[in-house]
Amino acid sequence: MRVYARVEAPAAPRVQPLTCLAMTHFALTAVGRDRPGIVAAVSAALLDHSVNIEDSQMTILRGHFAMVLVVAPPDGADLDRLRGDLEGVRERLELEVLALSPLAEADPASEPAPTHIVTLYGADHPGIVHAATSVLAERGVDITDLTTKLVVEGASTPIYALMMEISPPPGSDAGELERALGAVAREQGVDLTVRQLDEEVL
């Protein structure tokens, strides 16, 4: 009769998620003529140094690809060598900007939640962004996202579109804010829409 001994498999090591670790964060900004491979090249340089990409925003602006990343290098990372490798990427891809800057730490849980979308749309001219955002700043309204677009093709007059997600302070008067933005729209000669964000979308 054979006797088999039961062998317990070793327990898998517990890996602590990166989001639970206290890390120093940096902002990585890059701007350059749009072409395939920019994100792949930048992320490869970060991966070579075990840098974690947390939050990011990327888009094309007037034919230029622009990105902003919040990244977290591991403890003991050689930042000078990382910057050197990123500079190599900048030169190889002929980017106008590729910079790594330290960030003051902030609690992501304290970020304001947007409640409304504001859109201004009309003939392009200087001052639209300043006029609208000044009204918001005077009332302590936080802008959580802002996008602008200039539409030229197929229009006799260039059309400017400004879209903002906003977070008014608690207790603020939504009606008064919309009236103030309406006054800006009339002054600037543009159309205005203000609508509440669907909570399910958030």
Q: Give the distance, in angstroms, between the N- and C-terminal Cα atoms.
A: 66 Å
Instruction: Please state how the strands of the largest beta sheet are arranged side by side.
Output: 2-3-1-4
Domain count: the total is 2
Main pleated-sheet profile = 4 strands, antiparallel
Order of helices and strands: EHEEHEEHEEHE
Radius of gyration computed on alpha carbons: 24 Å
Report the principal-axis shape: flat
Question: Helical region count?
Answer: 4
Please name the fourth-level CATH homologous superfamily of the largest domain: ACT domain
Mean pLDDT: 89
CATH class of the largest domain: Alpha Beta
Verbal overview:
With 202 residues, the protein is an alpha+beta fold. It has two domains: 24-106, ACT domain (Alpha-Beta Plaits, 2-Layer Sandwich); 112-196, Alpha-Beta Plaits, CATH 3.30.70.260. Helix content is 26%, strand content 33%. The chain has four helices and eight strands. The chain has helices at 38-48, 79-93, 128-138, 174-188, and strands spanning 26-33, 52-61, 64-72, 97-102, 116-123, 142-151, 159-167, 190-196. The strands form two sheets. It has a four-stranded antiparallel β-sheet with strand order 2-3-1-4, with helices on one face.
